[in-house]
C-alpha cells in the first residue's frame, strides 16, 4: 500500500514538474500547471467511473483496464474476485457432496432456519413428511402438527440439554400406518437439524412382543390359580402323605413366585401400552411413605431398622397405584439386599429442581458397571441371590415406566460393600406443598 502511494505521488510530481517547465517555456506556467493537474484529475475520475460502473453491473465480465492507482485497485479486486469464485465453487461442490451423501441415507434430514422454517431436506425426509419443493421457508410445525413434536422442538430451540430430551415417536403425517421417530438437534445460532427415522417395523415388532407377553401372562393366571388352589387344599387337608409335605411346600412357593411374575408382567404391559400422561390423583407423600415403610417392615420381619424422614411434606399429582408400586419396589429391594440389622432410610426432600424420594440401604452395593442396565427387564447383578430373594427381575423396569408416565427419572448411586441409594426425582410442576417437615 505504501509503495502504491509513493508511486502515485511520484506520478503527480512528474506531471506537476513537466507542466510547470512547459509553462515557463511558454510564459504561462501557472495556466499550464492548472491544465495538467485538471487533465490528471479527469483521468483519475474517468477510471474511477469505469470501476464503479463495473461494480454496479454485478462485476460481470473482466475487470476494466485501468492505470495508476486505480489500475492497482482493479487488479487486486479482480484477483480477490477470482479467489472468492474458486472458494465459492469449492463450497458448492462440498454442498453437492453433502446433499448427495444425505440423499443416500435411510434417515430423513431436515435443515431448519430461524424460527423453525424449512431450509432444505433430503428426498427421504420429503417422502416421509410429504414435503414439496414450494414448501421451503414455511414452518415445519405446519406439516408436523403433533403437540409432542412441537413441544420437543421448542424445548430444543430454547437450548435444552441434548441428553435431557428423548426422540419423539409419532405417526407419519397423513399416514397413521407408519411410525416415525423424530429428533431435533440445534446448531449455530438459531438453526437446527431434524432427524427423521421410519421405525414402523420396530414399532410393530415391539407391539407384537407386548401383546404376546400380555396375552400369555393373562392366560397363565387361570391355571396358576387352579394349581395354587389344589396345593392349598392338599396342604390344609392333612390327607397327603408325610413324604409329600416338602414337595408340596416347594410347589406352593414356586406357584406364588410364578403368580408374582405374571402380575408384574401384566403391570409392565399395562404401563407400556397406556397413555404416557399419568392420572390426576393427589397423593400425600408422607402418608404414602408411611404405608410403604409398614409394608417393608412386614417383609423384613423385624430384621432391619427402617426409618422415614420427610423434610417437607407435599402432594404428587399422578396415579396413586403406580406411585405406590414405584416407592414400594425400591423399599422392598432395600430389604431384600440389606444384611440383617442394617439401617434402611426412606427420605423425601424438596429443592429448586423438584421433589426427591430416596431409599438408602446398607446392602451389598452395586458395581458401577451394572448401574446403566438395572432398569432392563430380568437383568440381574447376581442371578443366584436374586432368585433366593424371590425377586422377579421386573421391579426396576416397572419403576422406570411409572416415572416416565410422571415426567420423572431415576438416579442411582452405589458403592460395592457400602450400600446403595435409589432416588426418584419428580419435577416441580407435579408437586404441591402441604405442610412443614415431618419425621
Automatic annotation (TrEMBL):
Gene3D superfamilies: 1.10.287.130, Histidine kinase-like ATPase, C-terminal domain, PAS domain
Listed SMART domains: HATPase_c, HisKA
Gene Ontology terms: cellular component: plasma membrane
GO molecular function: ATP binding; phosphoprotein phosphatase activity; phosphorelay sensor kinase activity
Segments crossing the lipid bilayer: 12-43
Residues in Histidine kinase domain copies: 215-430
Compartments, as annotated in UniProt: Cell membrane
Family matches, as Pfam families: HATPase_c, HisKA, PAS, PhoR
EC number per UniProt: 2.7.13.3
InterPro entries: BphY/WalK/GraS-like, HATPase_C_sf, HATPase_dom, His_kinase_dom, HisK_dim/P_dom, HisK_dim/P_sf, PAS, PAS-like_dom_sf
Catalytic activity, as annotated: ATP + protein L-histidine = ADP + protein N-phospho-L-histidine
GO biological process annotation, one example: regulation of DNA-templated transcription
Keyword Nucleotide-binding: yes
Keywords: ATP-binding, Cell membrane, Kinase, Membrane, Nucleotide-binding, Phosphate transport, Phosphoprotein, Transferase, Transmembrane, Transmembrane helix, Transport, Two-component regulatory system
PROSITE patterns linked: HIS_KIN
Role noted for this protein: Member of the two-component regulatory system PhoR/PhoB involved in the phosphate regulon genes expression. PhoR may function as a membrane-associated protein kinase that phosphorylates PhoB in response to environmental signals.
Protein name per the record: Phosphate regulon sensor protein PhoR
Amino acid at each position: 500500500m505504501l509503495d502504491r502511494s509513493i508511486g502515485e505521488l511520484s506520478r503527480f510530481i512528474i506531471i506537476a514538474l513537466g507542466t510547470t517547465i512547459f509553462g515557463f517555456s511558454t510564459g504561462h506556467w501557472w495556466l499550464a500547471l492548472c491544465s495538467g493537474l485538471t487533465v490528471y484529475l479527469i483521468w483519475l475520475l474517468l477510471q474511477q467511473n469505469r470501476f464503479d460502473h463495473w461494480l454496479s453491473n454485478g462485476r460481470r465480465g473482466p475487470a476494466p483496464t485501468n492505470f495508476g492507482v486505480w489500475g492497482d485497485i482493479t487488479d487486486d479486486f479482480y484477483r480477490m474476485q477470482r479467489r472468492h469464485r474458486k472458494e465459492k465453487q469449492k463450497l458448492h461442490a462440498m454442498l453437492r457432496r453433502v446433499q448427495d451423501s444425505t440423499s443416500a441415507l435411510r434417515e430423513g434430514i431436515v435443515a431448519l432456519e430461524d424460527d423453525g422454517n424449512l431450509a432444505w431436506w433430503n428426498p427421504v425426509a420429503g417422502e416421509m413428511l410429504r414435503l414439496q419443493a414450494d414448501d421451503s421457508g414455511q414452518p415445519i410445525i405446519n406439516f408436523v402438527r403433533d403437540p409432542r413434536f412441537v413441544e420437543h422442538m421448542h424445548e430444543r430451540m430454547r437450548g435444552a440439554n441434548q441428553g435431557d430430551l428423548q426422540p419423539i415417536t409419532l405417526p407419519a403425517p397423513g399416514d397413521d400406518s407408519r411410525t416415525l421417530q423424530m429428533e431435533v438437534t440445534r446448531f449455530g445460532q438459531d438453526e437446527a437439524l431434524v432427524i427423521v427415522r421410519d421405525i414402523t417395523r420396530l414399532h410393530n415388532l415391539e407391539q407384537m412382543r407386548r401383546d404376546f407377553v400380555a396375552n400369555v401372562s393373562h392366560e397363565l393366571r387361570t391355571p396358576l390359580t387352579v394349581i395354587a388352589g389344589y396345593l392349598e387344599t392338599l396342604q390344609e387337608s392333612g390327607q397327603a402323605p408325610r413324604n409329600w409335605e416338602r414337595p408340596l411346600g416347594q410347589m406352593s412357593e414356586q406357584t406364588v413366585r410364578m403368580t408374582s411374575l405374571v402380575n408384574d408382567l401384566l403391570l409392565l404391559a399395562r404401563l407400556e401400552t397406556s397413555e404416557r400422561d399419568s392420572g390426576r390423583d393427589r397423593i400425600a407423600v408422607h402418608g404414602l411413605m408411611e404405608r410403604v415403610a409398614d409394608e417393608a417392615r412386614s417383609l423384613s420381619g423385624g430384621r432391619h431398622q427402617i426409618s422415614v424422614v420427610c423434610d417437607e411434606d407435599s402432594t404428587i399429582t399422578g396415579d396413586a397405584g403406580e406411585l405406590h408400586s414405584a416407592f414400594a419396589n425400591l423399599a422392598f429391594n432395600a430389604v431384600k439386599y440389606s444384611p440383617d440389622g442394617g439401617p434402611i432410610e426412606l427420605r423425601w426432600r424438596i429443592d429448586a429442581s423438584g421433589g426427591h424420594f430416596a431409599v438408602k440401604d446398607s446392602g451389598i452395593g452395586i458395581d458401577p458397571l451394572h448401574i446403566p442396565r438395572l432398569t432392563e427387564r430380568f437383568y440381574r447383578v447376581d442371578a443366584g441371590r436374586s432368585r433366593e430373594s424371590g425377586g422377579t427381575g421386573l421391579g426396576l423396569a416397572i419403576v422406570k415406566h411409572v416415572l416416565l408416565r410422571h415426567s420423572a427419572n431415576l438416579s442411582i448411586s452405589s458403592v460395592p460393600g457400602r450400600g446403595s441409594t435409589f432416588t426418584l426425582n419428580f419435577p416441580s410442576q407435579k408437586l404441591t406443598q402441604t405442610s412443614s417437615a415431618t419425621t
